[in-house]
Amino acid sequence: MNSPKMLSHFIDGEPQAPASGRWLDDVNPATGEVHALIARGDAEDVDRAAAAAKAALRGPWSQWTAERRAELLEQIAAGIEARIDEFAEAESQDQGKPVSLARRMDIPRAIQNFRFFASALRAESLGAHPTLGVLNYTARRPLGVVGLITPWNLPLYLLTWKTAPALAMGNTVVAKPSELTPWTASLLAEVIQAAGAPRGVFNLVHGLGAEVGQALVEHPDVVGLSFTGGTVTGRRLAATAAPMLKKLSLELGGKNATLVFADADFDQAVEGACRAAFLNQGEICLCGSRILVERPIYDRFVAALTEKVKALRVGDPADPTTDLGALISQEHRAKVEGYLRLAVEEGGTILCGGERPNLPAPHDAGAFLTPALVSGLAPTCRTATEEIFGPVATIHPFDTEDEAITLNNLTRYGLSASIWTEGLRRAHRVAEALDVGLVWVNTWMLRDLRVPFGGVKDSGVGREGGAHSFEFFSEAKNICVKL
Ligand code: TXE
After folding, report:
1. Where do the structural domains in the chain lie, given as residue ranges?
2. pLDDT higher than 90, residue 2
3. In this structure, which residue's CA is closest to atom 7 in ligand 1?
4. Is 4 helix (H, G, I), strand (E, B) or coil?
5. What is the 8-class DSSP label of residue 293?
């Protein structure tokens, strides 16, 4: 067997071993094999990274024009693109998702994040407010050293979604990817360096949330934090960072509804509900895991969706015909299975799925689970309202538009929803009434990077995307000139 890959920190322009000398296992969840060792960072490593980032803020980087930074982002995009297969393989092996999905979605979207923010930077214009004899105008400056903390479900995609606007605005970065999916972040650090970023502009510290994440949140030189992850972690992070008056962006969990009205295009709605529930093994904060269907089509819809879900192929992530790969870990699969037991206790019927598939070695040791659809549950029960973050969707009938809205709004989350209807007025009316940050009509997860992205209630605080990201990663300064 080859010796495992060593994923070091990347600090001040070079790979660096952890101060502790300790390493963590990086497990391929589809096989259970340890395929890399991860630097186990601690507060000392975070301190080194923050010092490098702080020094870089005062270095040549501070003299870079917006145009030059836009060119850097394009170079980074090209650097990822040139290694797209390597990135897709790494993402799949770390996360469990099908390689085909990483190749089609995660990595192209990461590339697009850099291209998009390069164009947005070039197109940016700031306000001026002239009156007789006085000119007020707005200038921007970077925040400074920013901490980016990202989760395991869309590792490169979410890290680049923060890194691109942070660099565009002239900040320096200390990134902390999930300890479960560190590999593509290490590849990204290589690409950023090769693209010509000055040393210390992008730093990466690997390790556990409680050790590296917490130290980053507490570090006095880190003035802004952009976090995507679980709601409990987000709350803890805010409890530490808010009293230090750090700027915070929190993108947290979701328990999103798919609302299907009787006048919807039936086949498109079935297809859309299936994709929304189970893409990426259901491990996306936007997944539609509560499917609400208007009573007249409920039985027919349940039958059609069950057939579709049963036809999804679970297995070898490298097989191009695979729809669902492995869940992120054995522990996470156990959590999801726990919710399926709870669903039965709560009176639900598992219409399909929820089983460990029989797969040949080496995937017999992987964290696979067949996609499950559950009916017969009260829409207020725990299974139907708590974030499971796996291949489990519950399905519920409703009778009126008002009831559908009430059912959507009763969870503590408020990230997204999709509405399926051919009724123009209804689509707008319902979209307005939902307590969420994002609504799709007759589609799901169709993304335009300019639009505000984020949730309400327990789904988070703040918005990312286009000008919203630029606003987060900069300080606006008003300059008033008496002419
Ligand atoms: O996320 P965590 P976990 C949800 C999902 C999942 C649950 C827990 O329901 O089952 O959250 O997942 C870092 N200070 N989502 O435990 O812990 C951590 O190392 C600073 C929704 O994996 O929130 C990782 O880099 N950082 C979600 C990041 O936070 C800390 C995506 C996210 O990990 C820290 C993932 C601390 N004290 C899970 N503790 C979404 N919204 O997409 C941990 N971290």
Report:
1. 5-252+459-482, 257-448
2. no
3. 230
4. coil
5. E
Radius of gyration of the chain (CA): 23
For 352-374, what is each residue's pLDDT tens digit?
Answer: 999 999 999 999 999 999 999 99
Stretch 375-403: mean pLDDT? 98
Check for a shared fold between 5-252+459-482 and 257-448: no
Q: Tell which one of 233, 289, 330 to mutate to probe ligand 1, the residue whose CB is within 8 A of the most ligand atoms.
A: 233
Predicted pLDDT of residue 4: 76
Entry pTM:
0.97
What is the 228 CA–ligand 1 centroid distance (Å)?
7
Where in the sequence numbering do the catalytic residues fall?
Answer: 251, 285
pLDDT single digits (tens) 155-184? 999 999 999 999 999 999 999 999 999 999
Determine if ligand 1 sits within 6 Å of the CB of residue 217: yes
Distance CA 276, CA 256 (A): 9
Residue nearest atom 35 of ligand 1, based on CA coordinates: 229
The one-character DSSP state at 263 is: T
Ligand 1 geometric centre to CA of 209 (Å):
8
Nearest protein Cα to ligand 1, atom 4: 230
Instruction: Classify domain 257-448 at the CATH class level.
Output: alpha beta
Q: Quote the crossing angle between the two packed helices 66-82 and 155-168, to the nearest 10°.
A: 160
CATH for the 5-252+459-482 domain, from 3.40.605.10, 3.30.2290.10, 3.40.190.100, 3.30.450.20: 3.40.605.10
- Pocket of ligand 1 contains residue 170 by CB under 6 Å: no
CA 43 to chain centre: 25
